[in-house]
């Protein structure tokens, strides 16, 4: 089933069920094992693995620690024979507002490239069980990429998808340019990546069609690393942190 879901690519659905899913996840308990996520098993048979991203003050920005925890939770659900499918969700305001800009702000090209930054961030795309992203609010940058790594996206009325990295002087780094193209087509994907504009779930659904993925993701990750060699990437992230407009110099 996971293979079937994966081969059909991204499926965006408006779901009236989404608010109740969020209500259920609000009651999750992390059991003290996790700092950045809530993890539980749901359903009468406890056969649905639930992961809720839980950094509300940072709009669920994806820091390295959070992604490590998501990887650990996914590993546990993958190994749990009771679990048949996994749901990843955020809050009503944000699925995730992107990779953590404050964490990336002072990183250098050497650190990104040498440390293979983002190497473990795509664990969700290799899970064999079906993974559903229940998205409401912001799914931006890495948040949009994370959702697109899941097999199915159920999007609520307030969901907003976008790849605003260009506004920070960088580019998507975890398959965004490739998966977005498959999800909404080349034209809209290019528009979104080049302008940083966001789209609603309805717009995404209307534009959905599929292309191929392959090599592009690897190239994209290297180009993402390369943006850390530019002054503009540093300026873009610093401006965000300092809550001012970026003064890009094209270098
Ligand atoms: N990183 C760190 N902190 C964040 C982020 C983020 N991505 N997004 C929001 N926050 C923080 C804000 O700094 C703020 O913190 P504080 O209260 O301490 O100042 C808090 O969350 C609330 O944010 P705002 O006050 O800005 O809330 P608004 O409702 O006014 O605006 C927005 C919400 C529009 C979402 C706005 O916060 C925003 O533009 N955020 C940045 C979005 C963005 O640029 N995302 C892309 C990041 S780069 C990226 O994702 C690279 C991907 C690499 C691959 C990842 C693979 C999975």
Automatic annotation (TrEMBL):
The keyword Acetylation applies. It is found in: Mitochondrion matrix. Keywords: Acetylation, Fatty acid metabolism, Isomerase, Lipid metabolism, Lyase, Mitochondrion, Transit peptide. Pathway: Lipid metabolism; fatty acid beta-oxidation. One of its GO terms (biological process) is fatty acid beta-oxidation. Belongs to the enoyl-CoA hydratase/isomerase family. PANTHER family: ENOYL-COA HYDRATASE, MITOCHONDRIAL, ENOYL-COA HYDRATASE-RELATED. Homohexamer; dimer of trimers. This is Enoyl-CoA hydratase, mitochondrial.
